[in-house]
Amino acid sequence: MTFEKHILCIGAGYVGGPTMAMIAHQCPQYRVTIVDINPDRIAQWNSDVLPIYEPGLDELVKATRNRNLFFSTNIEHGIQENEIIFVSVNTPTKTFGTGAGMAADLQYWEKTARQILEHSTSPKIVVEKSTLPVRTAQAMERILNTSQNHVRFDVLSNPEFLAEGTAINDLKNPDRVLIGSRETEEGLKARNTLVEIYANWVPREKILTTNIWSSELSKLVSNAFLAQRVSSINAISALCEKTEADISEVARAIGTDSRIGSRFLNASIGFGGSCFKKDILNLVYLCRYYGLEDVADYWEGVIKINGYQQERFVRNMLTAMFNTLSGKRICLFGFAFKANTGDTRESPAIYVARRLLEEQAEVVITDPKALDNARIDLADARGTVHFVDDPYEAARGCHAIAIMTEWALYGELDYARLYRQAEKPAFIFDGRNILDPRRCFELGFNVFSIGKRPLTHF
Ligand code: NAD
Ligand code: UGA
Question: For residue 365, which of 154, 377, 292 has the smallest C-alpha distance?
Fold first, then answer.
């Protein structure tokens, strides 16, 4: 079979896998290949157990794999054979040297750029899918244009806005697709090629085109605004706990103002995930680099409140449980950074578990999809940690249950049974506000929710 276009994606992660599976599914006329340096990851993509859990992903991959979607470790061959190359490698926070703890670590991304340069013998459109500091495309162009063999490269920015847990729907029905390019004749032509790919299923009015720097910056700003909403509502949750205002009522009252909007106002134990923190740190670093100290401080506040909220949660547990957690058994319901994913990167549960261990509590962790990652995250933690699949088994004999992840299943458990099995006095700390506090209180629990008056029996 001959294909209309040959598309490559370098980086078979949470973004590369689902985005390319969606393109392959929506565009059977294109051949899509995903490559990665990690052979285990590629083997998993080619197996029955995919490397990531994402609702709807298995079906998509099954329908397209080895038809027009291929997973491979042969990066060199992939670069040679494909004319459109998405780069979706990881861009974590730098851990060394200048900018350590703040700037994006661009080593994986630069390695990829050099590989593309080395193995290209025909013109390529190179698409930045990873989240990158503004003006990275310029560096990419500089590397690619050192070519001795005069291969033409056009660099585009096409940041990804999917959220984990809802990735397939986000990709199928995106609020928008953003494509940034140079505004030269060649840049606009390359941009148009990418627009035509998405136009196979995304309405044209949702495909936004901008200059390349606006596109790069918009991705960082989008995550910063989203995280800022979470930190804003979480900051107010602390005030609610002091004043007997109720955060759910406040969120509803402000969220019905159409200028504010109701989404992303769920007070919580804090945001996690691989991107919010790293992207804001990156934004802060960029602001400082350009001498914009006040702007940097403003955005840094979003991260500070997130750390404050997590520590506040642990302190509340400590205070409520008579100022000692030593020797107490505490069960964490959920370890993933949000529901419907097995991803635990930057999950607030990691911080809470480590802090509880520091307080010499015994920690029992349960999660329907994230236990393997939880084991890795806590491999070096000192103290007693148990990983248990069944939530009733996990909670048996515990002094407290702390809800870390808003999995629907935790809202549906038999809390009367959980109370019977609990050590008394029994506590629930609902870090996601998914339970009915009054009902749990009436069953006998002492209930501490986020941003609400505690309900206690003493
Ligand atoms: P990930 O760690 O899951 O995947 C990245 C993959 O790239 C890994 O499998 C790694 O082995 C591979 N890789 C690294 N260097 C390589 C190289 N030189 N050649 C081939 N493969 C290489 O990361 P992710 O979550 O998919 O994120 C990728 C990018 O997308 C990041 O910049 C992130 O900020 C951005 N992003 C992530 C999400 C998300 O929900 N996870 C959403 C939007 C944007
Ligand atoms: C986020 C963005 O929503 C995506 O648009 C973006 O593409 C992605 O980051 C990225 O760049 O990686 P994601 O981190 O997968 O997606 O999930 P979100 O739904 O945004 O949740 C992030 C964190 O905020 C989670 O820990 C979640 O529990 C928390 N959150 C979210 C709250 O505490 N309250 C809310 O009201 C919403």
Answer: 377
